[in-house]
Design brief:
The protein is of the alpha/beta class. Helices cover 35% and strands 18% of the residues. It has two domains: 140 residues, TIM Barrel (Alpha-Beta Barrel); 115 residues, Alpha-Beta Barrel (TIM Barrel), CATH 3.20.20.70. The chain has a ten-stranded mixed sheet with strand order 1-2-3-4-5-6-7-8-10-9. Helix 4 packs across helix 6, helix 9 packs across helix 10 and helix 10 packs across helix 11.
Length: 297
């Protein structure tokens, strides 16, 4: 299937494997580290998924926000001429992952057993780039991954509450940087004001049967106010809260200064204060990823 993705976007997406007309796959840093037995993603430590068998993908190379902290290119697709089917996306994403991994066969430092297992991913992180709920067949995509024996993590900005209600992944994330309407407009820079819709999604999250996570992207000097996030956590009642540092990487360096990236100690202090406010406990942490996990008591 040919792609109508603009050449400039293809250039910006160097290292990504384009799937069909609007999807993409990319092997993440921790998958590569795991193949060489040099470490694993904090999601393996926190949730038990195996980094070398994780397929990181997106069904929507498009987004309705232009967040200041996003390290990926923000000039994404604005329209799609026809949507690819979930079956096509899953099948071609697995093929793309295998192609991206093909060069590792010649690396003597790679664990061959892990590399063989990596040819058969069993975890889909639907969170690579863009906003996955803009893909109209996301519930069917999640079910297609499940049918093939995958667990699924869906990471959303919460701007599409109807889709949040419709999907049934293994783990649902809503990613927050803003704590009120003004900070939403300033930090997320949406193409319209979605704050009410985000709050609807948080309420829906509290009623979901799957494992749920609110991920807080913390930017020093911009949003590290635990007392302002506490009402949102109370509303969503997630299974977990991830307090994670903004990372000074990629395109975000054009919009934020280096000192906007908190140290792990800053994240830990924020998380401990938030835990007291919302009745959660510190369950785990990863200093290298600057993230602290809170669990509902």
């Amino acid at each position: 299937m040919t792609t109508a993705i603009p050449k400039k976007l293809l250039k910006d997406l160097k290292g990504y494997a384009i799937v069909g007309r609007h999807s993409a796959v990319k092997t993440c840093f921790w998958l590569k580290k795991s193949l060489k037995n040099e470490g694993v993603c904090y999601k393996q430590k926190f949730y038990g998924i195996r980094s070398h068998r994780c397929l990181q993908m997106t069904p929507a190379l498009m987004c309705n926000q232009h967040c200041v902290y996003c390290w990926r290119p923000l000039e994404l697709l604005t329209k799609v001429e026809g949507w690819d089917s979930p079956e096509f996306i899953v099948e071609e994403s697995i093929k793309a992952q295998r192609k991206l991994l093909s060069g590792f066969w010649g690396n003597p430092d790679v664990d061959r057993k892990k590399l063989e297992e990596a040819q058969h991913p069993n975890q889909a992180a639907i969170s690579l780039i863009g906003e996955p709920t803009l893909y109209p067949y996301l519930p069917e995509l999640v079910e297609e991954f499940k049918r093939r024996g995958f667990t699924t993590f869906v990471v959303s900005n919460g701007t599409n509450p109807d889709m949040i209600e419709a999907i049934d992944p293994t783990q649902l994330y809503i990613s927050l940087t803003a704590y009120d309407e003004n900070s939403h407009l300033r930090l997320n820079r949406p193409n319209r004001n979605y704050w009410d819709r985000i709050n609807q999604s948080l309420k829906i999250m509290s009623e979901k049967d799957c494992r749920t996570v609110v991920r807080l992207t913390l930017i020093r000097g911009y949003n590290m106010y635990p007392e302002k996030f506490a009402p949102l956590i109370d509303k969503a009642q997630p299974t977990f809260v991830e307090a994670k540092a903004y990372m000074y990487l990629g395109y975000s360096r054009l919009r934020l200064p280096p000192d906007a990236m908190p140290e792990h100690e800053d994240v830990r202090q924020f998380a401990e204060e938030l835990a007291k406010l919302v009745g959660y406990e510190v369950a785990d942490e990863s200093a290298v990823s600057r993230v602290v996990l809170l669990r509902r008591e």
